[in-house]
Amino acid sequence: MDSCSLDWSHECFTMDEPRSKAVTEAFVRLYKHSLIYRDNRLVNKDCVLRIAISDIEVDYKDIKERTMLKVPAYDTPVEFGVLTSFAYPLEGDLDDEIVVATTRVETMLDDTGMAVHPEDKRYTHLHGKYAIYPFNGSRLSIVCDGILVDPQFGTGAVKITPAHDPNDFDFGKRHNLEFINILTNKGLINNNNCSPIYILC
What we know:
The chain is of the alpha+beta class.
């Protein structure tokens, strides 16, 4: 059996003031030497515990059809995997529209763009045009993107929510879209995109 001799006069807590100052100093130096940087990124959030969760603590599930799953803090199972289609009117022609399909309808509150595949002939006439966001009348760019959009899936047109989806986050960075966080720390809807509603007739 191994034994060791400890000098208890050097006992310390890893998060006490001297150690915390050393960590802060290290990060400040790394930042000043451009070895690290600050940025806004998506995190996995536990809205019950109200903390961020590491990617290695998350189990991803690929859901291909309507599936009822138990979700913490909900008494009954929650529906996932249902594709819902809805339309956005087009700028300058309120009789025309672009129909998008999504499994996360609630994220329409932070839509800041639309995407179509550049080779999808159904949407050639919409390249470079704008849709109108129905709740506040803002313009949503219709962007061509061959990375994100699968013309065979759903309607072939997708809504973009850069602040709430990893793929849309990358798309938003590529195309300089606005990032709107619509959730509070408790996972409730905030008022970040609830400006005055315009009635479009």
